[in-house]
Specification:
49% strand; 153 residues; alpha+beta; seven-stranded antiparallel β-sheet; 4 helices
């Protein structure tokens, strides 16, 4: 599955870049995230809870920055396993920051996600709907954190 989109942020690109690289700040925007452990400056382990249709699970994952061009582009590899169903997830995620005319930032993202196992059996439509809800919540939290309304997170 491919997920693509753009998030408009009313802050300069340098602030967005610093936020993306601060694991505590960035992960505070991720719905369902239960635990994060920083391994080094380029990788962290985590646990995220997810429900897809009638199946719930907890994915143990490792996220690693594989390429970084500050303050413009970031590429990340994510691999994980669901502790309940044994389903596997892998994703290549890229984020690109573009400065807008008004000094704000447009964050473009693309995630190529592959899921194998019991959760994948549920089908593309259910997984896309669930992912859409999570992406919307992530976007709301990111905008609130970066644009100053931290009470809304």
């Amino acid at each position: 599955m491919i997920f693509e989109g753009k998030i408009k942020l009313r802050v300069p690109g340098s602030r967005v870049w610093d936020f993306l690289l601060d694991i505590d700040q960035f992960t505070s925007c991720m719905p369902g995230l239960e635990n994060v452990t920083k391994i080094d400056d380029r990788s962290f382990d985590g646990v995220i809870g997810a429900t897809v249709g009638p199946i719930s699970g907890k994915f143990n994952f490792r996220s690693t920055i594989v390429e970084s061009t500050p303050p413009k582009e970031l590429k990340v590899r994510i691999e994980g396993t669901d502790s309940v169903t044994g389903s596997k997830i892998s994703a290549n995620v890229s984020a690109t920051l573009n400065q807008t005319i008004d000094g704000h930032t447009e964050l473009s993202y693309r995630a190529d996600v592959e899921i194998k196992g019991r959760i994948a059996i549920l089908g593309d439509m259910i997984m896309r709907a669930t992912s859409s809800v999570l992406l919307d919540e992530f976007t709301r939290r990111l905008q609130n954190r970066l644009e100053g309304d931290e009470t809304a997170v």
